[in-house]
Write a structure and sequence with these properties.
By secondary structure, the chain is an alpha+beta fold. It has nine helices and 20 strands. The strands form three sheets. The chain has a 15-stranded mixed sheet with strand order 8-7-6-5-4-3-2-1-15-14-13-12-11-10-9. Strands 16-18-17 form a three-stranded antiparallel sheet, with no helix packed on it.
Length: 418
């Protein structure tokens, strides 16, 4: 054999060895490794769903994926009408979960108008579940096999793994936020189809409803859980749910925000019901201190209930007018520090309450540092507001508001800021 032939044989042997190593790696990859590789394809952003019961539009839900400094956060939010004999109401449910970049679940917070439970991964195979109850929190531990997911994350794991094929079966341990238990969830791909999804809407003034303005065609697979009742949903190639069936009559269909929420909200307003809006995105007003006048236009909010009495604020219909107050006005009628008789008169207003730890040395110390000798209560209040705005990150938080905890964690929602 010539030297050139030997070289060619060596190249082919090296190529074959590389193929063998790659094949061996593919065969021996663990589910966690496959999930970690597919997780990098998860795109942040919200998806919205219209919740229908038969032909009735009974609610709104959303699924939002956010990136956080050390991983991903998923927020499931749903509000829907619940009707029974001689009664009706509204059910609100929110599940916030945090996972690593590799989609390894770390924490789940479940709430329904208030905290229900918190589940935290305590080690590689144990989930610590703390349930809130009237008699106090109840703690249990649940064992699981990695990877641990939520039911809502199973479509992501299936679609972003290997190429979907009819008949494929997948099984994962999941933490079920409904039962607050870990269970084995097995699903099978039973069908493949092309579906149409509304991605934008336009307002129909004559019908006073939002209509589909543009639709996308997506390839989707039907996942059905092996037990009954169980998951029954269609997912696209990115693992996003296109539609799902809950029980015999309730369907969630992916659509635009306006058709999912605004159409349902207008139905509630027409019937005289109040509607809970989903969490809004807050935007800072630039150079607010320089504004002479600010006008806020709202939709569907009961502004008359605000009870605005300040002379520099006025409500007209669905509009709030705010003007810069005269800095010389001192409606408080006192200076800091307050006199002893003033504190005695307002003793009931200044006492310790749940979540308002006014006698905490940490809070007293922070307040004194922020006052810094200031005697004008209005300016002191402004410095407090600036400090809260600059120091406390605004993010969804389901734990009960506490001034001391919020100050220590430097994060919280609107209630915690207050």
């Amino acid at each position: 054999m010539t030297g050139r032939g030997v070289l060619a044989a060596a190249v082919l042997a090296a190529w074959g060895a590389g193929i063998a190593v790659f094949a061996q790696r593919e065969v021996t990859r663990s589910p966690m490794e496959r999930l970690a590789e597919s997780a990098v394809r998860i795109a942040p952003g919200p998806t919205y769903f219209a919740v229908t019961e038969g032909a009735r539009h009974v609610g709104f839900s959303s699924f939002t994926t956010d990136t956080i400094p050390d991983g991903l956060q998923f927020t499931e939010y749903e509000v829907r009408e619940v009707r029974a004999v001689n009664t009706s109401g509204r059910r609100v449910r929110q599940v916030v979960s945090r996972a690593s970049r590799a989609l390894a679940l770390r924490e789940v917070i479940v709430s329904a108008g208030g905290p229900i439970a918190t589940a935290t991964v305590s080690d590689d195979s144990t989930l610590l579940v703390i349930r809130e109850g009237a008699a106090g929190p109840d703690t249990t531990r649940a064992r699981y096999a990695k990877p641990l997911l939520l039911p809502s994350l199973v479509p992501l794991a299936v679609a972003l793994g290997e190429s979907p094929s009819i008949g494929d079966r997948h099984a994962y341990d999941v933490f079920d936020p409904t039962t607050l238990r870990v269970r084995r969830l097995s699903v099978t791909l039973v069908a493949e189809s092309t579906l149409h999804v509304v991605d934008s809407a336009a307002f129909d003034a004559s019908a006073r409803r939002w209509r589909a303005a543009h639709t996308d065609t997506v390839q989707a697979w039907r996942l059905v859980e092996d037990r009954t009742p169980g998951l029954d949903l269609w997912v696209d190639e990115l693992g996003r749910t296109v539609s799902s069936l809950d029980g015999a009559t309730t369907t969630r269909t992916r659509t635009s925000y306006e058709m999912a929420f605004e159409n349902w909200r207008s139905l509630g307003r027409a019937s005289g019901d109040s509607v809970t809006a989903p969490m809004a995105t807050m935007t800072r007003v630039r150079d607010a201190a320089r504004l002479a006048h600010l006008t806020l236009v709202t939709r569907g909010l009961p502004l008359a209930r605000l009870g605005v009495t300040a002379p520099w604020q006025r409500i007209a219909g669905d509009t709030i007018h705010v003007k810069t107050p005269d800095a010389t006005l001192r409606p408080s009628g006192y200076w800091l520090p307050t006199h002893r008789d003033f504190r005695a008169r307002h003793k009931g207003d200044l006492k310790v309450e749940p979540g308002i730890e006014v006698e905490s040395p940490a809070i007293i110390g922070a307040a004194r540092r922020l006052r810094n000798g200031q005697t004008d209560p209005r300016r002191f209040a402004e410095s407090l507001l600036r400090w809260v705005s600059d120091s406390i990150r605004l993010e969804p938080t389901l734990t009960p508001p506490s001034a001391l905890t919020t100050m220590r964690s430097a994060s919280g929602d609107a209630d915690h800021h207050t």
